[in-house]
């Protein structure tokens, strides 16, 4: 608990807020990448505390928000087959595909199980040799090594009744896509500390130079986030760019070598469709080589449908920092956690969900 | 009533001759000898008046001119958890609901739906818990029922209890009495029951080391009443935790609530467990905690009555009606909403 109390200490928080207010000469626009950071910013009221000093915009780092509808539809259609168990992380369950969510499929009788670790899915496969066990492998670089591990072991142990639906995305290509948008107003980034713990900083140095922008690799506690903002502001004020590592207690320059090796063993980089943002070149991971035989979509021959564009949801703009959730015309009017128009309203890391939970005014 | 012919099974089951069956079987609900034995040996000792079990209903003395009545069904997995079991839960749950109206619990009904295959040893230990809990709060079990359902049609055991309590004098404890300016007191730290259950399910209860807070609340409530403290409202924190209880009261009273976040007591083990799984203690279940709403002038007396674990956490006001606001130690404020659906563990 020491880490938690230190990094949430009221005096440290007040001191950092005051420093930032003192040093910022203009209302800089800074994007935090990770949905976990977004939630903690809104929950701790950091956006309130810095209101008028810094414009914090929220990034695409909510893994379940950017998972394409087609992947969720595939998971649901597989879950409806006989003798199939679909395993998923908890916060994927509420996110709707083009129709249902996995939670609704579960209510209708599908065997959908929440797991805490990908290894639990493999264990379920070992214990149920007469059933097909399908793991919905979702996430950014953070979960990629852990999600790769059961696939690697299933290959080693020749476990035939295990397969995965892979929907893995990579952060740096998404940052590049956001920065390349002509409407982009972002002047600095707080990069996602846990993603960088795995990957290291190489690609971030390249981005910082290419777009002449400050990037601070940042943790998740209120003091971490405020330190990240403070360092970013200092770079902006001194007109320098580059990469700073605020989250040095976890992030190393070269990342985690064994984790990177495991990702490279099982996955290959591929083009990826991001929900709400469209196709981003080289921004996803797919099973490679002999591991392709664990591809659940191929094994169960799911028909992928093109994404439906009929939704009124503005998630794409929200995920790119072009629209604040509370500025969306549907926010808390037609779009609520119980009746969401899009994924960011239901995911634990979605920006709309954070605003709805913590800072919604009594508009009802 | 506890009647020998009670069963909801529609299938024919050959009565088993075994007298010392180790498990509850369909024939325990089949109306024959085995059912009589089950009732006489195990359930009848719970009754103060053993002859009551032989009638279709029980006649009792009226406990007073004003009574409170409540009912609740109990389903919990696992049925035994650190700090208690479903039997104690079924008695305390109903006692606590009565206590929240300021009622002194007097009579209780006790109905079981048992899944075929439940071990008699486990059933006996649940009954023992029921007996202890009822005796502790001096509540009399006066009527009951037992059904056995086929394997797979239940989850070991379900219990329903109803309770009748006596409301003294002109006591008036209800959400309608809450006024702007009223203080909110909690009787202890939050989230223990939720963590005890979840850690049992995921097999980490020994490492986590948190027992349920399961306890009867008639004693603490009676101590407030005995001191003639002007309690406006009481609410026990069960499913949905502190956050749900506060939101329900803010809406019922059509007032706002401001809570000082740092004042909410949370054990560091509960906080750590929540941190690892991405849960919030404010939403975790409790079974021995309640909030007490009363005028500012009565706060000191109430804290004294409730003991050293009780603390003041917030105040009702006229701002943001129907909403609960949490105030941080660094002077920001956020809403504490009611949970939408259940808490689900996060990806990372």
Spatial strand sequence of the major β-sheet of chain A:
4-3-5-6-11-10
Domains counted in the coordinates of chain B: how many?
Answer: 2
* Subunit organisation of the chains: heterodimer
> Major sheet of chain B, described briefly?
7 strands, mixed
Fourth CATH level, the homologous superfamily of the largest domain in chain A: HypD, alpha/beta domain 2
Structural classification of chain B: alpha+beta
- CATH architecture verdict of the largest domain in chain A: 3-Layer(aba) Sandwich
**How far apart lie the N and C ends of chain A?**
38 Å
Helix content of chain A: 40-55%
Helical stretch tally of chain A:
17
CATH class of the largest domain in chain B: Alpha Beta
User: H/E order of the elements of chain B?
Assistant: HEEEHEHEEEHHHEHEHEHEEE
Alpha-beta content class of chain A:
alpha/beta
Task: Write structural notes for this entry.
The complex is a heterodimer of chains A (364) and B (348). Chain A is an alpha/beta fold. Chain A has 3 domains: 29-62 and 178-245, HypD, alpha/beta domain 1 (Rossmann fold); 65-170 and 255-299, HypD, alpha/beta domain 2 (Rossmann fold); 315-358, no CATH class. Chain A is 40% helix and 20% strand. Chain A contains 17 helices and 11 strands. Chain A has a 6-stranded mixed beta sheet with strand order 4-3-5-6-11-10, sandwiched between helices. Chain B is built from 9 helices and 13 strands. In chain B, helix 2 runs parallel beside helix 3 and helix 6 (218-226) packs across helix 9. The longest helix of chain B has 17 residues, at 120-136. Chain B starts with 32 loop residues before the first helix and ends in a 13-residue tail after the last strand. In chain B, 48% of the residues are buried. Classes of the chains: A alpha/beta (364), B alpha+beta (348). Chain A binds chain B through residues 1, 4, 10, 13-14, 17, 36, 42-46, 48-49, 63-64, 89-94, 103, 114, 116, 138-140, 142-143, 194, 336-338, 348-349, 356-362, 364, and chain B through 202, 268, 271-272, 275, 277-278, 320-323, 328-335, 337, 340-341, 344-348.
């Amino acid at each position: 608990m020491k880490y938690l109390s230190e990094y949430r200490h009221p005096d440290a928080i007040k001191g950092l807020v005051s420093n930032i207010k003192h040093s910022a000469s203009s209302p800089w626009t800074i994007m935090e990448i990770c949905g976990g950071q977004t939630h903690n910013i809104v929950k701790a009221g950091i956006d309130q505390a810095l209101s008028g000093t810094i414009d914090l915009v929220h990034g695409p780092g909510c893994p379940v928000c950017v998972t394409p509808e087609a992947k969720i539809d595939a998971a649901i259609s597989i879950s409806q087959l006989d003798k199939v168990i679909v395993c998923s992380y908890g916060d994927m369950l509420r996110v709707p595909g083009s129709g249902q969510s996995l939670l609704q499929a579960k209510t209708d009788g599908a065997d959908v199980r929440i797991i805490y670790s990908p290894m639990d899915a493999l264990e379920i496969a070992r214990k149920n040799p007469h059933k097909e066990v399908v793991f919905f492998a979702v996430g950014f670089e953070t979960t990629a090594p852990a999600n790769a591990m059961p696939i690697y072991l299933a290959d080693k142990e020749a476990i035939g009744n295990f397969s995965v639906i892979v929907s893995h995305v990579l952060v740096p290509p998404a940052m590049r896509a956001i920065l390349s948008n002509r409407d982009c107003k972002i002047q600095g980034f707080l990069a996602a500390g846990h993603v960088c713990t795995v990957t290291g900083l190489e690609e971030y140095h390249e981005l910082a130079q290419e777009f002449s922008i400050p990037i601070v690799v940042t943790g998740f506690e209120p003091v971490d986030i405020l330190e990240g903002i403070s360092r970013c502001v200092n770079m902006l004020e001194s007109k320098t760019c580059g990469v700073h590592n605020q989250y040095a207690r976890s992030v190393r320059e070269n990342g985690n070598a064994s984790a990177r090796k495991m990702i490279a063993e099982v996955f290959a980089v591929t083009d990826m469709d991001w929900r709400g943002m469209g196709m981003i070149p080289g921004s996803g991971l797919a099973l490679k080589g002999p591991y392709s035989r664990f591809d659940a979509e191929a094994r169960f021959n799911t028909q992928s449908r093109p994404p439906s564009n009929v939704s009124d949801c503005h998630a794409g703009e929200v995920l790119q920092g072009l629209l604040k959730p509370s500025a969306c015309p549907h926010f808390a009017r037609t779009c609520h956690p119980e009746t969401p128009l899009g994924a960011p309203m239901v995911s634990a890391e979605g920006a709309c969900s954070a605003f709805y939970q913590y800072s919604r005014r009594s508009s009802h | 009533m506890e009647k020998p012919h009670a069963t909801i099974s529609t299938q024919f089951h050959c009565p088993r001759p075994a007298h010392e069956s180790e498990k509850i079987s369909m024939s325990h609900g089949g109306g024959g000898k085995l059912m009589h034995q089950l009732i006489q040996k195990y359930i009848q000792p719970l009754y103060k008046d053993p002859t009551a079990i032989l009638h279709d209903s029980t006649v009792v003395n009226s406990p007073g001119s004003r009574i409170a009545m409540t009912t609740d069904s109990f389903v919990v997995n696992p049925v035994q958890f650190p700090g208690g079991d479903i039997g104690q839960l079924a008695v305390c749950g109903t006692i606590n609901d009565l206590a929240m109206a300021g009622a002194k619990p007097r009579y209780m009904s006790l109905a079981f739906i048992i899944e075929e295959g439940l071990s008699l040893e486990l059933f006996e230990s649940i009954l023992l818990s029921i007996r202890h809990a009822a005796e502790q709060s001096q509540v009399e079990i006066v009527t009951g029922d037992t059904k056995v359902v086929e394997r797979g049609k239940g989850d070991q055991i379900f219990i329903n209890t109803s309770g009748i309590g006596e409301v003294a004098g002109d006591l008036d404890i209800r959400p309608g009495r809450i006024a702007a300016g009223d203080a909110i007191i909690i009787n202890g730290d939050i989230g223990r029951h939720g963590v005890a259950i979840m850690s049992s399910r995921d097999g980490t209860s020994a490492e986590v080391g948190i027992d349920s807070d399961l306890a009867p609340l008639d004693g603490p409530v009676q101590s407030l009443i005995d001191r003639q403290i002007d309690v406006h409202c009481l609410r026990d924190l069960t499913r949905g935790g502190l956050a749900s209880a506060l939101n329900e009261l803010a809406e019922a009273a059509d007032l706002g609530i401001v809570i000082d976040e740092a004042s909410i007591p949370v054990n560091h083990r509960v906080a750590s467990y929540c941190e690892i799984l991405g849960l919030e203690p404010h939403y975790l279940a409790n079974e021995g905690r309640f909030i007490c709403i009363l005028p500012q002038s009565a706060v000191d007396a109430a804290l004294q009555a409730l003991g050293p674990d009780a603390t003041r956490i917030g105040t009702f006001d006229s701002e943001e009606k129907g909403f609960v606001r949490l105030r941080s130690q660094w002077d920001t404020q956020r809403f504490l909403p009611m949970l939408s659906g259940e808490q689900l563990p996060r990806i990372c």
